[in-house]
TrEMBL record, chain A:
CDD domains: trans_reg_C. Residues 2-116 form the Response regulatory domain. Residues 124-220 bind DNA. Residues 124-220 form the OmpR/PhoB-type domain. Keywords: DNA-binding, Phosphoprotein, Transcription, Transcription regulation. Pfam families: Response_reg, Trans_reg_C. The keyword Repressor does not apply. Transmembrane segments: none annotated. This is Response regulator transcription factor. The keyword Cell cycle does not apply. SMART domains: REC, Trans_reg_C. The modification 4-aspartylphosphate is found at D51.
UniProtKB/TrEMBL annotation, chain B:
The keyword Signal does not apply. The chain crosses the membrane at residues 18-41, 172-191. Residues 192-243 form the HAMP domain. Its EC number is 2.7.13.3. One of its GO terms (molecular function) is protein histidine kinase activity. Pfam families: 2CSK_N, HATPase_c. It is found in: Membrane. This is histidine kinase. It catalyses: ATP + protein L-histidine = ADP + protein N-phospho-L-histidine. InterPro entries: 2CSK_N, HAMP_dom, HATPase_C_sf, HATPase_dom, His_kinase_dom, HisK_dim/P_dom, HisK_dim/P_sf, Sig_transdc_His_kin-like_C. It comes from Paracoccus spongiarum. It is an enzyme of class 2 (transferase).
Length: 221, 463
């Protein structure tokens, strides 16, 4: 997926962009609304992450102009304002969703996924690996003719493993990315999802390998 | 929801003052009318009496003739009978030459000046305990070869005239009193008509919603324009101050939350990159603390908003089913993150309510946040919207850990359950919900679910 990140803070933009890149997304970053306009004219994007407070104007006005010109690229607003009124006004301007800073990155991912799924059709979210096709938006893998549905955490796990096939991911690392930091999670919790994903990948030509004491990795059989 | 002005110490009442002024003025007018009428009546009656008396005294004068052995007076009977016909009046006359009485009544009051022989002199005086109107004329007669000046005086009592004047004045008093009686409702009506624009203006300002800071544009009588101008000036200053405060809060939030967002993000990234367990624990605590600060800030803002809007309650019709559906859409990604399924029932038909939609939205978000927070992964939340006993009930049933024994009331400010130490929370969420319910005259109930978990029910009166 190709994202346009419109955010005036260089540090935050760099940080969010590298997180999105970890998930395998391509990210362009605009530091001003004018720059954002240029990016949008030069290339199609699947999703815009738009900060409300920009140095050269209000992100909501920018969004209203985009929608007024019938440019329907999905937009998630990022804002420092937590008020219901601001949220409602943002959605009224045509935003697809809204996230309040400081945000949980997992929540941003979940919201991106939900918005992209609603706009699915144009974007090709399918990916081939070994002997299966993975569709992150519809949360399915296709093995041969068989369509298998993934639950959210199985999907996240597969996404992470597929972002660097063959690389080993440690248990704590996977826990951090699968669970909210608000939850207290035992180290064994991950094994449940690994077990389930392994069953779903049965016969797919890929194998979820456990490296005892080190972690997990996805390799072709 | 009383208008703020009700508590003001009441000063003078303009309406009462107007009524009193009007009535006092009317009373003065009535008194003036009485005296005017009486004066006019007296003058009119005196004028008519003078006309008759004048004619009579002239005709008496004409009846004086000099004869050989003196004077002969031919009293004109027609004249006297005419004078006598005016009520029960008595008539007095005298003829005198110099100070010598020739004939008639003795001691009649003398004229104030020497009367001419063409136009009579008129005056009033008392005679024999009666008030008289008198007329006198001088007649010249050749007597003993000398010109004698005979002064003829004719007087008439004024009983009838006085009675007419009295009657007229009395009628004037009755008319005046009637007028005064009529003036009371007229005064009340006029005062109300004068005050009505003020009332209308007050009502227009009172009716306004808490966010309505437009200048007052209602039609205003010219005399109230300075007041409305001052009010509009004040509204404009207030709007300016509020905008400044809003801009400030917005800007401050942006300046604080953007770096906080960066800190959180960086900490999450550092977590992904480090394998040292002690460092990981520290980073996790950091991320949790940031999450907690942001959640608390959001809830404090929500709480302040709910308090403010309860105070400035502005109700409007809205559809609870549609609102619930939109809140569900907003929290759906959060539920999905943890594979929690939210089953909603009863949202397919509209549930029209009357209230503050923004407040209800905040309450719904807090109920659902709470249910999500305490639900286990892959848990199930059942949301039900139904109507019973004239109320709309929205119940949210989770399958989480439920309530600890003894935690009967968790809706107090900063109160948290005794079994939730491991979950981030501010203790404000349920307070907000309860306050929103109270502001709408509804209720909020949190009780253990039928098997496990907790069931939160928000009940609001149907319109």
């Amino acid at each position: 997926m190709r994202f346009l990140l419109v955010e005036d803070s260089d540090d935050l933009a760099a940080s969010v962009a590298s997180r999105l890149a970890m998930d395998g997304h391509g990210v362009d970053r605009a530091a001003t609304l004018a720059e954002a306009r240029e990016f949008l004219e030069s290339a199609p994007y699947d999703l815009i992450l738009l900060d409300i407070s920009m140095p050269d104007g209000d992100g909501r006005d920018f969004l209203a102009r985009e929608r007024g010109a019938r440019r329907e690229t999905p937009v998630i607003m990022m804002t420092a304002s937590a008020s219901v009124g601001d949220r409602v006004s943002t959605l009224d301007q045509g935003a697809d969703d809204y996230i309040t800073k400081p945000f949980d990155f997992a929540e941003l991912q979940a919201r991106c996924r939900a918005v992209l799924r609603r706009h699915a059709g144009a974007a090709d979210s399918r990916r081939h690996y070994a002997g299966f096709i993975f569709d992150a938006l519809s949360a399915t893998i296709t093995v041969g003719d068989e369509l298998r549905e993934l639950r959210a955490r199985e999907l996240r796990l597969l996404e992470i493993l597929l972002s660097r096939p063959g690389q080993t991911f440690s248990k704590p690392h996977l826990i951090d990315r699968l669970f909210s930091f608000d939850e207290e999670v035992s180290d064994n919790a991950i094994e449940v999802y690994v077990g389930r994903l392994r069953r779903k990948l049965d016969g797919s030509g890929a194998r979820l390998e456990t490296l005892r004491g080190v972690g997990y990795r996805l390799i072709p059989e | 929801m009383t208008p703020a002005g009700a508590a003001l110490p009441a000063g003078i009442s303009l309406r009462r003052r107007l009524v009193w002024q009007f009535l006092v003025l009317s009373l003065l007018l009535v008194v003036a009318l009485f005296f005017t009428v009486r004066f006019a009546a007296e003058r009119a009656s005196r004028a008519s009496q003078d006309a008759v008396l004048g004619a009579a005294v002239i005709s008496v004068g004409d009846g004086i003739r000099a004869v050989d052995d003196g004077l002969e007076l031919d009293l004109p009977h027609a004249t006297f009978s005419m004078l006598g016909a005016m009520g029960q009046e008595r008539i007095f006359y005298s003829l005198a030459i110099g100070s010598r009485l020739v004939t008639g009544y003795e001691g009649l009051p003398p004229p104030p000046e020497v009367p001419g022989d063409l136009s009579p002199v008129f005056w009033s005086a008392d005679y024999r305990a009666s008030r008289l109107r008198l007329a006198a004329i001088t007649r010249r007669v050749l007597l003993d070869n000398r010109m004698a000046e005979i002064v003829v005086v004719l007087g008439q009592t004024r009983y009838g005239q006085a009675a007419i004047a009295r009657d007229t004045a009395r009628s004037a008093v009755w008319i005046g009193l009637g007028f005064l009686l009529l003036a009371v409702p007229v005064a009340l009506f006029a005062a109300r008509a004068v005050i009505r624009p003020v009332d209308r203006l007050a009502a227009a300002v009172t009716r306004r919603g808490p966010q309505d800071l437009r200048p007052v544009r209602d039609p205003t009588p010219r005399e109230l324009v300075p007041l409305v101008g001052a009010l509009n000036g004040f509204i404009a200053r207030l709007r300016g101050a509020l905008q400044l405060a809003e801009t400030f809060i917005f800007e401050a939030a942006h300046r604080i939350r953007t770096p906080l967002s960066l800190v959180r993000n960086e900490a999450e990234m550092a977590l992904a990159e480090t394998s040292d367990e002690a460092t990981r624990q520290r980073l996790r605590r950091m991320v949790r603390a940031i999450g907690e600060s942001s959640r608390s800030a959001n809830q404090i803002l929500d709480h302040a908003m709910v308090l403010y809007r309860s105070d400035q309650f502005a109700a409007a019709p809205f559809d609870l089913a549609a609102l619930t559906a939109s809140v569900l859409r907003a929290v759906a990604p959060l539920a999905e993150m943890r594979d929690i399924e939210i089953a909603a029932q009863g949202l397919d038909r509209p549930c029209p309510l009357h209230g503050d939609e923004r407040m209800i939205e905040v309450a719904l978000r807090n109920i659902l946040d709470n249910a999500l927070k305490y639900s286990a992964s892959e848990g199930r939340i059942t949301l039900r919207l139904y109507q019973a006993d004239g109320m709309a009930h929205l119940s949210v049933q989770d399958a989480g850990r439920g309530l600890a024994k003894g935690d009967s009331d968790l809706t107090g400010r900063f109160r948290r359950g005794s079994n939730v130490g491991d979950v981030v929370g501010s203790g404000l969420g349920l307070t907000i919900v309860r306050e929103v319910a109270a502001a709408h005259g509804g209720s909020f109930d949190l009780r253990p679910g039928p098997e496990k978990g907790a069931c939160a029910t928000l009940s609001l009166a149907l319109p």
